Structures are given as C-alpha cells and as structure tokens.
Amino acid sequence: SPNNMREKPNLKFLDHYVNQEPTLDIDYDSGAEIRRVSSHELPSSVLGMYHPTSHTIHIRNDLSQYQETFVRAHESAHAQGLIDEHRTDLHAASKVGYNLREMGRYSLAA
Q1: Shortest CA distance to 74 belongs to which of 110, 32, 37, 35?
Q2: What is the 3-state secondary structure (H, E, C) of the chain?
Q3: What are the tens digits of pLDDT across the range 73-110?
Q4: Phi and psi for 59 in degrees, rounded to 5?
C-alpha cells in the first residue's frame, strides 16, 4: 500500500475450517456412517451397535485400537446384512485375525 502500512489479513475464510462438523467416517465395506460415542450412549457393556434405520454404526470412543478394529468389522457385517451374532463374529475375525468375544467381558449389539 502507498503508506507502507500492512493490512490486517482477512481470516474469515478460516471460520469454515474451525466451525465445521467433524469429518464423516464411513465404513467402505457397507457404506454405513461410523460415529464414536461415549459409553453412556450405548447399553451397559456394549462396545458397538448398528442402527439399520439410519445405517449408522456406533462405536464407543474409549476403546483401544485393538478393540475398535474388531468392533468395527463386526458392526460392518451387520450393516452388510448379517444378523446372526456368531456369523458376524466369524466375519470380523476373518477380517482382523482375532475374535474379541471369545476373550469375554463385553458384548456387541446388532
């Protein structure tokens, strides 16, 4: 500028990035949206749940990566149409190489 004064930068464009909704997480096998939720948003001792009406997988946000990987694969099987819990466990185990339910102390809900 002619008077050598610096103009304040217009940072309004950053509002879009700062105030936007969290990026969607999609399960690419089923197309279901994945939402991480607090433990009080799911029934007691449930680590994950698939909601067919909204085509959404809910996974507790306090799981270890090890747990989340299995739960995500299990709930993805439900989102792909499997109903039987044993079959969804087998599907998940075939994807990730282990079965958390065999280790006990939790449940997954359809």
Answers
A1: 110
A2: CCCCCCCCCCCHHHHHHHCCCCCCEECCCCCCEEEEECHHHCCCCEEEEEECCCCEEEEECCCCHHHHHHHHHHHHHHHCCCCCHHHHHHHHHHHHCCCHHHHCCCEEEC
A3: 999 999 999 999 999 999 999 999 999 988 775 556 54
A4: -130, 135
Backbone angles phi, psi at 28, to 5 degrees: -75, -20
Average pLDDT, the chain: 83
Q: What's the first-to-final CA gap in the chain, in angstroms?
A: 64
φ, ψ (nearest 5 deg) of residue 19 = -100, 5
Instruction: Quote the tokens at residue 89.
Output: 């466990």
Write the CB contacts of 89 (distance below 8 Å, at least 6 apart in sequence).
74, 99, 101, 102, 108
The residues pairing with 51 across neighbouring beta strands, listed in sequence order, are 56
